[in-house]
Amino acid sequence: MGATTSVHRTIDAVWRMESAKVIAALARYVRDVGLAEEMAQDALVAALEQWPVEGVPKNPGAWLMTTAKRRAIDQIRRRENFNRKVEEIGREIQEATPDASEGIEDEIGDDLLSLIFTACHPVLGTEARVALTLKMLGGLKTEEIARAFLVSDSTVAQRIVRAKKALADAGVPFEVPEGPELAPRLASVLEVIYLIFNEGYSATQGDDWMRPELCAEALRLGRVLAELAPKEAEVHSLVALMEIQASRSKARTGPGGEPVLLLDQDRGKWDWLLIGRGLKALERAEALNQPPGPYYVQAALAACHARARKAEDTDWQRIASLYQVLAQISPSPIVELNRAVALSMAYGPAAGLALVDEIAGEKALQGYHLLPSVRGDFLVKLGRTQEAKAEFEKAASLTRNEREKTLLLQRAAACD
């Protein structure tokens, strides 16, 4: 029993590492990511049946690849294009054994990149893109994705099934986009990865302030993408941003799991190895000498905080100017709200409050808990504590995260 459990753990670990490569390679042949995943799952089932009996093969990744490709040949034989497809992939596995090396690294980079662009295709809704990316590229089980986003297993399963059908119905090609299509498609990929990271970094709902497993998965996907697309500055910029933000993880919660805001954090708990990696990724983005994109500016902002060993050393004037640049590149009320915070730190709370009051009527900020939270902070600094109390109470009523609600109510109580 113990030996079987150990083998199952090994299979689970191998699947996490190899599933994306297997699915990507199969999708190149069958041109259907849904079908490719089914074949890969068949190979996983075969491993669960055979490895506890026969032992774990010397090259488990190659075993999965070989087994899955044999499933592909069975499928292709049932199609009209039998001769062309069998000639294409049949030779490479005809004499292979499950332990034989398939050379799966050959062309795997292009296959993985194609899989990333397919899973994040704009034809899919945001939630579908996130679920499909975590399933196909992260190797996460449906229940793991559901647990991370606090939804039911059936909800995630339906999203994944519908996403595969939508890709098939739309005839989305399994390829890396080129020319004018590349920029918007890449933006979609980066958006999905950063959404996954942010849900882990500041959970929008539930009892926990952070979900580290999602941050780790987003970072892994970002690093893989940076290796596959080394000439895209925004990819390196996103990695830099996530590395630097992730470096603060241990300092962002107190002993009881309560949130600790940036300026109150013990910077001795920051992970300076991750900060170093983030700054190097930012340097790689700068070296490409491409026009600054939104992730580059956000990474530069994060770097300003990372370079300040003490909160009072932060260069707030530079941060305010960077937010001005970000507002021009990617204008939004959220960016303006962050710029208001920077202005208050650089030039006083009255400057920040003036901008907040200017944007308070924006539709995108209605129901957004950070608007009254930020406004309350400015009012406290201006000595208008009763007004601040009402703002913090309003913010607490709007957030769905219990840890954040507790913090906001404590700030409201402190106004008395």
UniProtKB/TrEMBL annotation:
Gene3D superfamilies tied to this protein: 1.10.1740.10, Winged helix-like DNA-binding domain superfamily/Winged helix DNA-binding domain
Highest taxon of source: Bacteria
Family the entry assigns: Belongs to the sigma-70 factor family. ECF subfamily.
InterPro entries: DUF6596, RNA_pol_sigma-70_dom, RNA_pol_sigma70_r2, RNA_pol_sigma70_r4_t2, RNA_pol_sigma_r2, RNA_pol_sigma_r3/r4-like, WH-like_DNA-bd_sf
Record has Isomerase as a keyword: no
A family per Pfam: DUF6596
The DUF6596 domain, residue ranges: 185-285
Keyword annotations of the record: Sigma factor, Transcription, Transcription regulation
Annotated ranges, domain RNA polymerase sigma factor 70 region 4 type: 117-167
Domain RNA polymerase sigma-70 region: residue ranges: 21-80
Keyword set includes Transcription: yes
Designated name of the protein: RNA polymerase sigma factor
